[in-house]
Amino acid sequence: MSDVHEAVTRAHRAEWARIVAGLTRRFGDLDVAEEAAAEAFATAVERWPVDGVPPGPGAWLTTTANRKAIDRIRRESKRDDKQREAQISYDEDRPEPVGAIDDERLRLIFTCCHPALAMEARVALTLRMVGGLSMPEIARAFLVQEATMGQRITRAKAKIKAARIPYRVPSAEDLPGRLGGVLAVLFLVFNEGYLASGPDTDPVRTELTAEAVRLTRLIRGLLPDDGEVAGLLALMLLTESRRAARVSASGELVSLSEQDRGAWDTGLIAEGHRLVRDRIASGVAPGRYQILAAINAVHTSARDVRDTDWSQIVALYDQLVRIDPSPIVALNRAVAVAELDGPEVALVAVDRLDERLDGYHAFHATRADLLRRMGRSGQAREAYDRAIALAGNTAETAYLTRRRDQLRS
After folding, report:
1. How confident is the model at residue 22 (pLDDT cuts 50, 70, 90)?
2. 326-409, superfamily in CATH?
3. Rounded to two decimals, what is the model's pTM?
4. Maximum CA extent, the chain
5. Close Cβ partners of 170 (under 8 Å, ≥ 6 residues apart)
6. Domain 2-91 falls in which CATH fold?
């Protein structure tokens, strides 16, 4: 039974986005696509333990999802008969017009990121439809309640239907207007893969990081002169380069300062550094992703944590705060300030963020570490307890628990 469960999980990771994209292309309805895909996987959970895992799980799921979609359309009595029959008889293998993008999942991302939708709605909808993330995972990414996120996604789908926004291949002229939402989606998908937010998944979801990198490379090919595309790709590569050293053999998160730098991927680091250098050489003012990539370039340039140029990292965060004055950026800046000016100075900055980040586990984890370094063990323990209660990632929880238990009573 466990083998079957793993097979369904693997199929969901590998096939969800492709199936949803194909259904959306065929039936032109995001609700139909999502529900039919979900029903196909639910059917697999019921059937595969009895019938066995099919030799081609993706083909089986695609066929089942198409049948589920057709059944649903036939049940909808309000739908115009001619429209219903046209959709049911639509030849899904019919060639599509050639456009700027020839990757089906990337087309779906650009469709979900239509400018008619608010930016947060674009990102949330795409994470659900393309990334296959659950509602709790998406809600955690936005630091909002699950019900709030569900309503946001429902409204986005309704707007697409009401405005008759077409599912089509974007033209080259459409790409720049949709790029911001697309990059935000890919960044969040990558982050969910690199450090999964839920307790019921692997701590690191390599299929998500790999897909985010793959799609970002495709966009880089479409828009080779765009600085933020290059910056995001560099950021992903430099972050991914550390993955092998990020989780210990016992399943515990390994902090950057404790990682075995000999396990870092030098090929990814070299490619990421090259992208960063090219953007600096362009002389164009950098955007958010380019600055984040530059920060990671500084980290990955140090052979030992003691060699890290913290003054340069703080300067880069100062630059980032001017274009992205979010509390999370301020929190990350404070972590760097602690290395440069000491934990006391950093704690003052962190405590200013209390009201805005109280529900964010990394806020409490940062406070705990600063308080620990200042010798305030009792307060550090309380902060660790709060961080542990909010953290969903099993590797991160294990790390925080160990750090808390090492405190002196």
Report:
1. confident
2. Tetratricopeptide repeat domain (1.25.40.10)
3. 0.80
4. 74
5. 99, 100, 101, 107, 110, 111, 178
6. Rna Polymerase Sigma Factor; Chain: A (1.10.1740)
